[in-house]
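Duplicate of earlier report; 3-oxoacyl-[acyl-carrier-protein] synthase 3 input re-posted below.
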Amino acid sequence: MYDVFITKASTYLPNEPVSNDEMESYLGLVNDTPSKARALILRNNKIKTRYFALDKNGKSTHTNAQITAKAVEGLFDDQFKKEDMQLLSCGTSSADQIQPSHSSMVHGELNIGKSVEINTSTGLCNSGMNALNYGFLNIKAGIKDNAVCVGSERMSAWMTADKFNHEAENLKLLEERPIIAFKREFLRWMLSDGASAFLLEPKPRENEISLRIDWIDFYSYAHEIEACMYSGCEKQEDGSLKSWAEYPAEEWLNQSIFALKQDTKILDKYILVKGAESLRTSFDKHELDPDSIDHVLAHISSGYFKEGLKEEFANVGLDFPWEKWFYNLSEVGNVGAGSIFIAVEQLMNSGNLKKGERILLCVPESGRFAYSCALLTVC
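Output:
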């Protein structure tokens, strides 16, 4: 078995940062009416700027595959040329199409002139970590000499007003208030576009910072809890999900079936406590001392969870002082599967890391409550 190192990281964020006041200029007004929930949601999530692959007319400027390819291209240099790439592993929850796979489309965008192995991880926020794990295991087993792993999102195109206007019009016809449900609107003000890529190799780079991946663990609580975040379906009274394929085609628009939705009631109840439970399991499994951790990078969807997450960790004996936490949510926004990659890239290239330091990664996924965590060592 080989050691595995992140030897280079690269981030691509499309266009210029978008402020809170500008958001509806890009996403548009549902039913030509300013959102009443927007200010409250933004105040709670504490996001100040984010990135959209849109112009101010709501027109797309990049596909997810293009954003991802841009991040990958940032890895190429004199030590690692594009034709050297052996494995491309991509994770996203917002692929541009149902089929073919996201990694296929990214491979096509890269124009590297050769065949490579590809892997696509789908789902929600953990899809990026799953893509990383696939590359990690291939290098560790000696199957590949290098792997490029990417987490990306392009959710803005899912959140433009035209995706919800038909539902609002249908509510008018039913003589109901033409306001889309909170479970749909909530996420319009939460999500951001971007991608970040890691180069994995079995040796660290000389005279440069590399990060050794010591382990990656995953946990799912789908055996205990119903779905919380979902798309392409509608949640039923008993908590089950009814697939888009079971609805007449006209209902896809009437009920915004393909919109990304979140059940905020069970989100609050489970997201933090199960995250702490899973992390405690990993610390016990690896006999890891919390005091040995120098940097804590935890993906959170909203600043609303920041204090609560620290408290829940402390409740299971993992009381990390604030000076060890690294957050970039307020500037970058919630990039889903790409968030933890972007945070690692920023810290890795900050010039603040010292050899021997340990970096803890924590990623929750509210789809049906799945979690991942990893330990990196600075080399």
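The mean pLDDT is 94.

Merging into the original ticket.
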